[in-house]
Amino acid sequence: MSDVRSLISLCMNKRVFIQTHNFPDPDAIGSAFGLQQLLLRYGIESKLCYDGKIDKLSTAKMLESLDIRMYSGIDLFMELRDDDCIICVDSQKFGGNMTDFTGDEIAAIDHHPTYVEVSYRYSDIRQVGACSTIIAQYYEDREIPPDERVATALLYGIKMDTLNFTRGVTPEDIHAFEYLLPLIDKKRMSQLEHSQMEYQDLKAYGAAIENIRVIGCFGFSRIPFSCPNAMIAILSDFILSLVEVEVAVIYCAREDGLKFSVRSERETIDAGELTRSALDGLGDGGGHAAMAGGLIPVAKLPLLGDRPDDFIRERFLAVAENGGAEA
């Protein structure tokens, strides 16, 4: 584990920006906010930033409830300078889901696999269930208890990314839970956990059920209208809950292209490798062994041909059959 004191030293007397992946989820928000508030304890101010958009559901509710401010790339376009320090959190440069902002990426704190090696001045990349777990350990190691807002954000990020400690969980995540639980705002946590869906999202469930196609251990489903990232992720977990399905591939038609959410419970199929290989040459994808995401941009959609659903299914199945998704 890297010593966060070296990161603190790097940030002294610098303009600091903490950047998440383009569509920040609760874990990205929690870990970025937690790091921001830790740096502030040492007199280091920073701004949280992302490119893309904030989804509805859990993410927007989290920002509002915990009074967290994040800036989009458009907000910062005229502000960023070449000598600004950028810390990648829950993301890595050239990882396929993070825009390369103006500035110097001095650090990466992440729990995803590395696909493109980058020489950071500070690096803490670990295979744990949630990036928020890493930030929680920083607080514990420095013996600086997080306040209620930070503890709540971190624990909510851990719970969401590990599906309430049922997916990709490690002993470090469990320890972080034990550390954070006495410090959280229980009322706010309850509100966050019970406000994750809107009435209109029931249509997405209906579309996922109507369009499902089960082939072997794979469950494929297309949502023919735009959905937030959080909803697509919920649907992939929903399809994965079927007894017949061990790998779920859900994709949604949006203005920016086809957005994918992939889940795997099959030990021999790595969801991240499966998605990265299946979308190679078409778009970007990647993630963990159990969960991954990807995007085929609008400009590449003609490559799918006249029968895009068949093309996508055949592509994923071929990768799995040829061993390109082995865990």
Task: Describe the structure in brief.
This protein is α/β, with parallel strands linked by helices. It has helices at 4-11, 26-41, 58-66, 73-76, 131-141, 148-161, 171-180, 186-193, 202-210, 229-240, 271-278, 308-321; strands at residues 16-19, 46-50, 70-72, 85-89, 104-110, 122-125, 213-215, 218-223, 247-254, 257-264, 284-287, 291-297.
- Mean pLDDT, rounded to whole units? 92
Q: What does the radius of gyration come to?
A: 19 Å
SS summary, helix count? 12
Q: What strand order characterises the main sheet? A: 3-2-1-4-5-6
Morphology:
globular
CATH class of the largest domain: Alpha Beta
What is the CATH H-level superfamily of the largest domain? inorganic pyrophosphatase (n-terminal core)
Tell me the series of helices and strands, N- to C-terminal: HEHEHEHEEEHHHHHEEHEEHEEH
Structural class: alpha/beta
- What percentage of residues falls in helices of 4 or more residues? 25-40%
Number of domains: 2
Describe the structure.
It is a single chain. The protein is of the alpha/beta class. It folds into two domains: 4-193, Alpha-Beta Complex (inorganic pyrophosphatase (n-terminal core)); 200-321, Diaminopimelate Epimerase, Chain A, domain 1 (Roll), CATH 3.10.310.40. Helices cover 38% and strands 20% of the residues. It has twelve helices and twelve strands. The chain has helices spanning 4-11, 26-41, 58-66, 73-76, 131-141, 148-161, 171-180, 186-193, 202-210, 229-240, 271-278, 308-321, and strands at 16-19, 46-50, 70-72, 85-89, 104-110, 122-125, 213-215, 218-223, 247-254, 257-264, 284-287, 291-297. A six-stranded parallel β-sheet has the order 3-2-1-4-5-6. Strands 7-8-9-10-12-11 form a six-stranded mixed β-sheet. The mean pLDDT is 92.
